[in-house]
Amino acid sequence: MTENPFFKPSTLVYELPPFAEIREEHYLPAFERGMVEQLAEIAEIAANPEPPTFDNTLIALERSGALLKRVRAVFDNQVSSDTTPGVDRLDTEISPRLAAHRDAIHLDAALFARIEELHGRRDGLGLDAESRRLLERRHTAFVRAGARLGAADQRRLRGLNAELAAGASAFRRNVSADSKARALVLDSAAELAGLSPDAIAGAAANARALGHEGKYVLNLKNFSNQTELAFLTDRSVRERLLAASLGRAADANGPLAIRMSALRAERARLLGYDTHAAHVVADETAGTVEAVDALLTRLVPPAVANARREAVELAAAAAVDGVEEIAAHDWAYYSELVRQSSYQVDAAALRPYLELERVLRDGVFFAANLAYGVTFTERPDLPAYHPDVRVFEVFEEDGGSLGLFLADFHARASKRGGAWMDELVTQSRLLGRRPVVMNNLNVPRPAPGEPVLLSWDEVRTLFHEFGHALHGLFSDVRYPYFAGTDVPRDFVEFPSQVNEMWMVRPEVLANYAKHHVTGEPLPAELVERMAAADGFGQGFRTVEYLAAALLDLAWHTVAPGQEIADAEEFEAQALAKAGLAVAAIPPRYRTAYFSHIFAGGYSAGYYAYIWSEVLDAETVDWFEGNGRGVRESGEVFRRELLSRGDSRDPLDSFRAVVGRDPRTGPLLARRGLA
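^ thats the sequence. predicted structure below, dont judge the formating
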């Protein structure tokens, strides 16, 4: 196939992939040629008769695999954002082959011998700080991937990695298929009472798109407690919706989770660690499972106590309706009623002030300009991978070009649930590349001609994911290995969580929170009540998060050979042991649809969100109290942290901004756990 668009670098601006030319049949030939080409490049490095040098080994390794990286970036995005049956089939086929390809590189004895030799004499190589870190981090990656194992152990390792890759692909497909199958189909608008008119219209439009003419469909989001639970007045509909959510993929993914946990435990022991969690956390900023466990378990008692206090208030509100005991499908609904009665904050009444386009341009983009001086120009002339996707060119304050930002905000049947950031082109001064990044959300599309109105949580998600985008856009490193969000998993959420602060900064909120019809600003007294109400519900939110984080650790501290008969029973026992068996508060993710840990990169790492929040809370305090203006503070944060990626120890970047080691006090105060 000579006309395959992946076979040569894109000629579009910033090497944006030529989506208009890419077809499904291009993927497999590009993957196969890409793997062959990179292995040939690796063989050339390993067989080089010259003594190993930084340039002929590490730099050559950084330059290898260009074709494979091009096709993988586009394919991985399509798997998540706009999949098809053909793409799913190819994902099943290619995932274990890619795992074998990674092993072929990391377990290449001759290549590792060159890296090992360079590492041994690194003090005498005269390397600058970023180059030395590249040598050290590459060496660590090879060792952790099994480069020092004997031949028999390496053969077993290859088998484990291939089976785990296939398992992750199957887990992801099962969640996606069952989430679609369990979407709640309702016969009448009356069953949706409590939802806003635009949300009801969106459910009708969704039903039409899915072939249920005259009905209403609520799609399942990737987490347990569906957002509509806060508003649906019909208790039976709430119960059906939550049951559909909690029951996803249990039959298929329960046994698969058990198998993957066992395989990861065996692999960890092979690599010299007691558990998979120990192997993962050893290379994160936390350092040890004990450090993670200490933070999480410290938070459990006050979080559960907060939730129980909240439950008392909810019970009083529910008693008015004759509800004797708060069930899981009641919690969000009565929480919203308490917020309305105690704080006079109606979440549905906020939506007319939160129109997507205004939030994006006058909120998200405005805040980025305020703090970092960047501007955004829409480029409808540039192709995207789906008609929903918008492309923006990003410019520096002086007019210099920075990169591209792709925005894919709407839910559709071909997209997985949730929200995420990804990269299509990774920044690198070595390769002369500037970043192309994207954000994906799952905002329901309204009826034709109606505005896209967001919930407060969707606004937060938009700011959060854009924080990841800025991390990628502001990357300024030499080596692609360190670029943007390629940092430890328990650090990557930190910049995105910091970016959430802008949504409530007075000058930003006043700029975007305006009624979509009248243009009237969100009333100041409502803003004050929102701030007061934000503390209510922290018990629930912290408990559901901790339950997921400790469930993750339970699955990944399983010892090699430990028998697990039933996934749901294991989950129940793990939550009870952690002190989090709160019937009315299910974990944010149950095992069978916990894609973060079984089909993503967060295995033994879901703790990262709250670990990063320690840094986030400290940094927000720094932004507000360092005596500098917003623009100057933003420049410090960008220069010392966002631009650095993993080119130096991320905690050193944090210290360069805040001026000290992180403390837990601001986090505890924020979550009401002090």
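The chain has a mean pLDDT of 96.
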